[in-house]
């Protein structure tokens, strides 16, 4: 039996039904988070739920009935019920069920909350050997700072990566690199880490924030300035990061090797620091 959480209850996944009038289903009108479980413990849950509350606020979704602490408890309980030792919990909230009509529904409409968990190992092979990425034009809207259910731009980009045997699509607006379809992107040059500033054009990853903290501890300059495709291609090292892929080396972009095509030293330093950080939190 596998449990999911829906409408304030833990039920078997076969009982997890949503309405055809759910605004998440009709409009992608909702938000989500994905939280990691390491060794049976919930990782950076407070940061994720604070971001969920921020996303809710930015789209005018009322989450007053919920709290960071309450949601963290739900996450722990779901992972425990499903015996997740290493894996993750996905949580989404939609603006609720109402007849399809673009304006917000009546204020009494309850948000629909759902969550599922899954078990899997850390991506050890890829972390050690690196992955390939392609580049694609970033066609998304201008509020990429909101972790919204509207993911069509991201889905189309990732599909193109998959078609090209690449792990990720690195997106760019014109010449400016923004982020990956489901990750943040970093170019390392002459011992410094460059990444797009956390503004409306990217999602400010929790992993990105951890990497920033670790880089500062290691005295590696962490520069939040946008960079070009050309800079990316000529970087010494490239990294992508997210809750599921952690500090992931990119050793090839399109047909071009990055640096000598091997995982670089700064990447390895950050990976070590990230491993220690996970241990210190669990
Ligand atoms: C979730 C996400 C990330 C990574 O965020 P984490 O909090 O590190 O998992 C990066 N970019 C996009 C577009 C995302 O949706």
Automatic annotation (TrEMBL):
<dbReference type="InterPro" id="IPR001544">
    <property type="entry name" value="Aminotrans_IV"/>
</dbReference>
<dbReference type="GO" id="GO:0046416">
    <property type="term" value="P:D-amino acid metabolic process"/>
</dbReference>
<dbReference type="InterPro" id="IPR043131">
    <property type="entry name" value="BCAT-like_N"/>
</dbReference>
<protein>
    <recommendedName>
        <fullName>D-alanine aminotransferase</fullName>
        <ecNumber>2.6.1.21</ecNumber>
    </recommendedName>
</protein>
<keyword id="KW-0808">Transferase</keyword>
<dbReference type="InterPro" id="IPR005784">
    <property type="entry name" value="D_amino_transT"/>
</dbReference>
<dbReference type="InterPro" id="IPR043132">
    <property type="entry name" value="BCAT-like_C"/>
</dbReference>
<dbReference type="GO" id="GO:0008652">
    <property type="term" value="P:amino acid biosynthetic process"/>
</dbReference>
<keyword id="KW-0663">Pyridoxal phosphate</keyword>
<keyword id="KW-0032">Aminotransferase</keyword>
<dbReference type="GO" id="GO:0046394">
    <property type="term" value="P:carboxylic acid biosynthetic process"/>
</dbReference>
<comment type="function">
    <text>Acts on the D-isomers of alanine, leucine, aspartate, glutamate, aminobutyrate, norvaline and asparagine. The enzyme transfers an amino group from a substrate D-amino acid to the pyridoxal phosphate cofactor to form pyridoxamine and an alpha-keto acid in the first half-reaction. The second half-reaction is the reverse of the first, transferring the amino group from the pyridoxamine to a second alpha-keto acid to form the product D-amino acid via a ping-pong mechanism. This is an important process in the formation of D-alanine and D-glutamate, which are essential bacterial cell wall components.</text>
</comment>
<comment type="subunit">
    <text>Homodimer.</text>
</comment>
<dbReference type="GO" id="GO:0030170">
    <property type="term" value="F:pyridoxal phosphate binding"/>
</dbReference>
<dbReference type="InterPro" id="IPR018300">
    <property type="entry name" value="Aminotrans_IV_CS"/>
</dbReference>
<dbReference type="GO" id="GO:0047810">
    <property type="term" value="F:D-alanine-2-oxoglutarate aminotransferase activity"/>
</dbReference>
<dbReference type="Pfam" id="PF01063">
    <property type="entry name" value="Aminotran_4"/>
</dbReference>
<dbReference type="InterPro" id="IPR036038">
    <property type="entry name" value="Aminotransferase-like"/>
</dbReference>
<dbReference type="InterPro" id="IPR050571">
    <property type="entry name" value="Class-IV_PLP-Dep_Aminotrnsfr"/>
</dbReference>
<dbReference type="GO" id="GO:0005829">
    <property type="term" value="C:cytosol"/>
</dbReference>
<comment type="similarity">
    <text>Belongs to the class-IV pyridoxal-phosphate-dependent aminotransferase family.</text>
</comment>
């Amino acid at each position: 039996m596998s449990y999911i959480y829906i409408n304030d209850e833990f039920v078997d996944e076969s009982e997890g039904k949503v309405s055809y009038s759910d605004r998440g289903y009709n409009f992608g009108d909702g938000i989500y988070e994905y939280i990691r479980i390491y060794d049976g413990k919930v990782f950076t849950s407070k940061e994720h739920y604070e971001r969920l509350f921020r996303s809710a606020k930015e789209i005018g979704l009322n989450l007053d009935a919920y709290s960071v602490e309450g949601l963290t408890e739900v996450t722990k309980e779901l992972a425990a019920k499903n015996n997740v030792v290493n894996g993750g919990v996905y949580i989404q909230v939609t603006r609720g069920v109402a007849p399809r009509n673009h304006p917000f529904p009546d204020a009494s409409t309850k948000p629909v909350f759902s969550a599922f968990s899954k078990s899997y190992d850390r991506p050890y092979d890829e972390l050690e050997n690196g992955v390939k990425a392609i580049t694609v034009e970033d066609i998304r809207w201008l509020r990429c700072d909101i972790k919204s259910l509207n993911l069509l731009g991201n889905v189309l980009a990732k599909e193109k990566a998959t078609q090209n045997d690449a792990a990720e699509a690195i997106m760019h607006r014109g010449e400016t690199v923004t982020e990956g379809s489901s990750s943040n992107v970093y170019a390392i040059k002459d011992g410094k880490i460059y990444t797009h500033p956390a503004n409306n054009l990217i999602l400010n990853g929790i992993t990105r924030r951890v990497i920033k903290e670790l880089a500062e501890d290691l005295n590696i300059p962490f520069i939040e300035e946008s960079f070009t495709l050309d800079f990316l291609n000529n970087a010494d090292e490239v990294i992508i990061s997210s809750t599921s892929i952690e500090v992931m080396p990119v050793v090839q972009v399109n047909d071009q090797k990055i640096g000598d095509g091997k995982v670089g030293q700064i990447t390895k330093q950050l990976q070590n620091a990230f491993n220690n950080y996970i241990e210190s939190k669990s």
